[in-house]
Amino acid sequence: MVDMVLAGTDGRGFVPVTLRIEPRQRVADGQTKKFPVVVVELRGVTPRQALAGPMNAATALDPGAAGQARAAIEAPRPDYLADAEAALTVDDVQDVYRAAHAAGHLTDDLVAALKKRADEVKAETERRNTGPDEDGAYEAEVVDEPAAAWPATAQPLHSPHTNGRPRGQCGGGHPSGDHMNQHTDQQAPPWYLGRLAGFDIESTGVNPENDRIVTACVVQCGAGQPVASATWMADPGVEIPQAAEAVHGISTERARKEGTPAGEVVEQVVTALTAVVLSGIPVVAMNAAYDLTMLDREARRHGVQPLTEIVGDDLRVIDPFVLDKKIDPYRRGKRTLTALCEHYKVPLDGAHDAAADALAACRVAWRIGQREPELGAASLDFLHDKQTEWAREQAESLADYFRRTPGKEDRARFVRGDWPLIPHQRKGDS
Q1: Looking at the DSSP assignment, which residues form a beta bridge with residue 21?
Q2: Which backbone phi and psi does 191 adopt, to 5 degrees?
Q3: What is the DSSP secondary structure assignment for residue 37, as one 8-state letter?
């Protein structure tokens, strides 16, 4: 008797079964013939449950999870049509499609309804694109709509798009001024119309040197291709403070129960970002110095080769936080991702969720590129270098403000202008 898991023909649906070989015999023409037969029995689920929706591989492989599997299968299905009605882009509708597909809930009627909704969203987009809004910006979706057929499954997290620049070629020197229109890639579309890779981390605290990753996401969008995302939940190996739990909703108990060992998560995140960077896709991260520094320190903590040591000078980062402060340095109010989404009129599906924040950062970057012609036309190489300069200037300005403000003088010494990450200080470094 052998316990095993059968996968569907699409490689995504898994059902736990038991294989048993039983002897059989048959009498024909006065002779008794003996032969073995293979009996396949469902393990831990009923036929109705197996047909209702495929499980993931981890659940199917764990005989002890049968109760959880039954509960998950028998739970009320998501209201996919309501999710589609709330969609703002065709990509959002396709995300609903992929979620239903992954859960085994697709029916002909649901597919037809989702396709109809996608057509409606596309028509709404075209109507909005006929003129500028009240602040002079033309409304458009975050990405061009794909011309290919409706996707059958989620797309892989890789893309050959290189923004028109061969890898390793930086395109010459950069000037000291901010005249970015002199440094464009005439052979490639603007960077904000190409593939973007959002990256976000939710963690145990606000110190990238010492705090730990709890959840992370790398999401690709744009360039007329479907959205492709990878998300992780880690067991950070330390207690998650209540203040951090209140922000992202992940408790210590949940992380220990559902999370993957932190070292494995860090290695997988570094691998995903390496594939993105070496494909010529810019990494979009809100306040990149925080997320990339934390990933770097976690990699060193767990014996994983850091991203910057793998990709070197190929890393190109778009930081909406730095760009926004450069565009409008005197605007009052917060500069959080939520505030930027409101200011640039792009949707944020759920603040402080790594996947939602990563996609929202891409939307803000896209909007900035669309609204600001010089930024949108700049090459990725030039824009990356300019953000390094602007981040340093912004940090110096903030530190100077703290020094001049009674009661805030001590904060100045904690301001860092390093970008896109704080360099690692080895022992003995001054």
Answers
A1: 38
A2: -60, -35
A3: E
What contacts 254, CB < 8 A, 6 or more positions away? Answer: none
d(CA 387, CA 394): 10
- CA gap 282, 199 in Å, rounded: 10
Q: Report which DSSP code applies to 75.
A: S
SS3 content of the chain, % helix, strand, coil (to 5): 45, 15, 40
Q: Which residues contact 148 (CB under 8 A, 6 or more apart)?
A: none
Spell out the per-residue pLDDT of the chain, length 430, in tens: 655 545 544 444 556 667 677 777 776 667 777 767 666 676 665 554 554 444 444 444 444 444 444 444 445 577 888 778 777 777 778 878 877 776 667 787 888 888 888 888 777 666 544 444 433 333 333 333 333 333 333 333 333 333 433 333 333 333 334 555 445 555 668 999 999 999 999 999 999 999 999 999 999 999 888 899 999 999 999 999 999 999 999 999 999 999 999 999 999 999 999 999 999 999 999 999 999 999 999 999 999 999 999 999 999 999 999 999 999 999 999 999 999 999 999 988 777 788 999 999 999 999 999 999 999 999 999 999 999 999 999 999 999 999 999 999 999 999 999 999 999 987 655 4
Residue of 309, 275, 322 whose CA lies nearest to 424? 309
Number of residues written out for the chain:
430
CA atoms 197, 191, 167, 389: torsion sign: negative
Contact 233, 118 (CB under 8 A): no
Q: At what angle are helices 380-404 and 320-327 packed, to 10 degrees?
A: 70
Report the candidate in 348, 352, 200 with the shortest Cα–Cα distance to residue 287: 200
Contacts of 74 (CB under 8 A, 6+ apart): 49, 52
Record the tokens describing residue 303, joined without a space.
Answer: 């014996």
237 contacts 263 by C-beta, under 8 angstroms: no
Residues 6 or more apart whose Cβ sits within 8 Å of residue 66 = 16, 43, 44, 45
Report residue 214 as tokens: 């709890």
Burial bucket for residue 335 (CB in 10 Å: 0-12, 13-18, 19+) = middle
Give residue 154's Cα distance to chain centre: 13
Residue 32: strand pairing partners = 27
